[in-house]
Task: inverse folding
């Protein structure tokens, strides 16, 4: 065997081993985290754990790709679950770009009949990509290890798109995170009863609109 060829094979195997060790090292020392992504006038949050990646909303445009690449390593191209809080473009439009670069396994949604053409196009594209649809409603819960994410609203059918937002309560390593979509004050008052311990991190409703968040929320 040619000596140069043998050296090339040995070097290639060495690089492959380094790459494998890099992935294993990153996985073993991966810490659970919740990242609030800077997607402009919109919402997107990434929950990263050893069990998988959960994305809540995807912002208004392809800025999500740049932001998510800051969190996920280049070899991690799977998003296990996307929760679309409600069908406003500033919460779901970035999914079109994500579908081109990431494998999305499942999407949770609560309003399949919303007539917006952009939203309906997204649903069609998700089906083309064989993404599993999950029904998001009050009481839906996903558990892994000692953690869970639970949908606590909408409490009933509502024609108001903002108040129909999926409100998700995340319990991660005994800390509670609340993701509120664009709910208004009337819904805030109703969901307080679901908190059995103080909320550690609150995603303020509707990007911090002054007409929404209650002082005692």
Result:
């Amino acid at each position: 065997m040619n000596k140069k060829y043998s050296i090339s094979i040995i070097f290639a195997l060495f690089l492959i081993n380094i790459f494998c060790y890099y992935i294993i090292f990153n996985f073993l020392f991966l810490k659970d985290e919740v990242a609030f992504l800077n997607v402009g006038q919109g919402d997107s949050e990434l929950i990263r754990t050893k069990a998988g990646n959960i994305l809540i909303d995807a912002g208004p445009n392809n800025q999500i790709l740049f932001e998510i690449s800051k969190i996920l390593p280049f070899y991690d191209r799977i998003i296990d679950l996307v929760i679309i809080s409600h069908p406003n473009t500033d919460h779901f439009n970035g999914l079109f770009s994500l579908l081109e670069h990431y494998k999305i396994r499942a999407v949770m949604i609560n309003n399949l009949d919303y007539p917006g053409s952009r939203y309906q196009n997204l649903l069609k594209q998700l089906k083309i990509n064989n993404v599993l649809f999950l029904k998001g409603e009050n009481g839906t819960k996903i558990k892994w290890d000692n953690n869970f994410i639970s949908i606590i609203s909408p409490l009933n059918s509502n024609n108001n798109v903002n108040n129909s937002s999926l409100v998700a309560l995340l319990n991660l390593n005994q800390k509670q995170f609340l993701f509120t979509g664009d709910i208004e004050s009337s819904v805030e008052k109703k969901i307080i009863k679901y908190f059995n311990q103080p909320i550690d991190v609150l995603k303020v409703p509707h990007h911090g609109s002054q007409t929404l968040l209650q002082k005692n929320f």
User: Anything to note?
Assistant: The mean pLDDT is 84. DSSP finds six helices and 13 strands in the chain. The longest strand covers residues 147-153.
